[in-house]
Amino acid sequence: MFRQISPTVKKLLGINVLIFLLTSTGIIPADLLAMHYFESSDFHFYQIITYLFVHSSLMHLISNMFGLYMFGSLLEQIWGKQRFTFFYFFCGIGAGLLYMGIQYYIDFAELRRATNLALSDPNSQNLVDYWTKFGKIPLPGGFPNVLLVKQNYNEIVSSSILGGASGAIFGIVMAFGYLFPNSEMYLFPFPIPIKAKWFVTFYGLYEMYAGIENQTGDNVAHFAHIGGMVFAVILLKIWGTKRNNFY
Description:
Blueprint: H1 7-24, H2 30-33, E1 35-36, H3 47-50, H4 58-79, H5 81-107, H6 109-120, H7 124-134, H8 146-158, E2 161-162, H9 166-179, E3 184-186, E4 193-195, H10 196-213, H11 222-239
Antiparallel strand pairs: 1-2, 3-4
Helix pairs in contact: 1-4, 4-5, 4-9, 5-9, 5-11, 6-7, 6-8, 7-8, 9-10, 9-11, 10-11
């Protein structure tokens, strides 16, 4: 089976497994490599790459590596090592950047406005309103102040952590559906084949719906998945890659 795995895919599989072992055993703190929100004090620029190798559980790792194994080798055989490697990290980094953009303009927009108001005009009413709605850290008696507002904001945004190769994997799946739109696939446990173009379309629509719905307890970074697909299409359009038809 492993003879069918292309060289770069094999290296990526190995690195992901190694990093998972190192982080799950505590030898390397996962928090150090995972990507934090860019306004957090825990954010470092290298995290836009290292987050791709951090997985929260064994099933998280297996699902991503299975997607890499299933679709990655074919793309590497078509493009070659250098182009495939660039594509993988382009989609992965793009997914992380889009995810942070969604956080900035949507998830943390109201929090940021309230924080800026409390800091720019720290009167008693603004501070109380802010703390009533967004206070997360313990209030050591008395009254919230500017320093506590800053600490509270950092605590909230620092809780947003992104990890996993999903963005890059979704980019690879998107590329497969784009290049081989009529290639038929079987999705367990359904015995009916589905063409790759419909699989990618339905999967993308589901991720968009799930990201917008944002149900309580859903810790999946759906917009990172969408980001991987979007950046895959952008790069494929730039490259002008021709499609192949399979019927």
